[in-house]
Amino acid sequence: MYKKSLPGLIVFLLFAYISSKIIIPVEIVAVHDDVLLVRHFPFLKNRQIAWWEANKKWLKEKYGVPHIQSDGYYNVFIQNFGEGYQPDHGTDEDSDLLCFNDMVFSSHCIKKDPLLWIGWSKNSGQFYR
């Protein structure tokens, strides 16, 4: 009896996990210049790009992102917020931290976890990496 229900349970749990990842909306935790710190960002690259395309006008209106240069060039970096802000101890162990100088708190860094890089330049046009 249990041997037959175990594969069904595994399939159900996998389906529930994937469904929860799709249903939970992206949470923008903070914006620092052209860096967006997010939670619940889509895993698949095509879903990430679709999220950007669906929200880029709103992001420009609300946060002023991206900051477009006079020649049209811009970059936007989307990072996972992860465990939140951490202090920079100034050691080699902190080399995996991305720090924001626009914060006056001692905990002003996050662990580097890049999710998507969006940009535009004259040479390459629009790109997603």
UniProtKB/TrEMBL annotation:
A Pfam cross-reference name? DUF943
**Official protein name in the record:** DUF943 family protein
